[in-house]
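Convert to structure. Protein one:
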Amino acid sequence: MNSSTKIWLASSAAAVVLAGSVILNTVYISKYINLKSNLEVDNSLRLTTEVYDRDKKQIYYKEFNDLAPTSFYEITKTDPSFKYTVSPEFGAFLSGFQDYKLIGNEYFSISSPTHKECAGKGGQFTPNTPNACQVGASSLIISRPESFVISVESY
């Protein structure tokens, strides 16, 4: 191998390594920026929860403050007002609230105008709640300040 071939191979290898590092840095820096923008500057998470009865009257309001990123279920299960049914297949679903009695085909609907699993996802199956969450309470991960509304709906 002559010296010009060796120089060409060395410069090509360096160019491939440089291009690879630029691509990886671009991908990971953009992911870091997206994750950082989801968290507040003061690093404190808040969860605002409102509950409405069948007559759309507010029966509960609470702000959970200074939270670590976790699920809606993990945060609200510390409050005895929330009652959950937990199954290994489907996770945790809100089955009761305080001593409120559901009648007939009523259920508790969790909705949120801010959470990515809820905002604008309802509608077809839940026409009264266009921001109805499409997953259960254990799948609603809170990684930034969020606001949730729980209301009594019927099917």
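Protein two, convert as well:
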Amino acid sequence: MESNIFEVLFPLGFIVAGITAYFAHKYDWRIAKWF
């Protein structure tokens, strides 16, 4: 069960990181506002 959760979270983590990096480059000023 635990290993199954990590198998799902790891790929999702990379996808979220990729999307975040993409939007950070595209909407740099907007993201700076949120943080």
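The mean pLDDT is 79. DSSP finds two helices and no strands in the chain.
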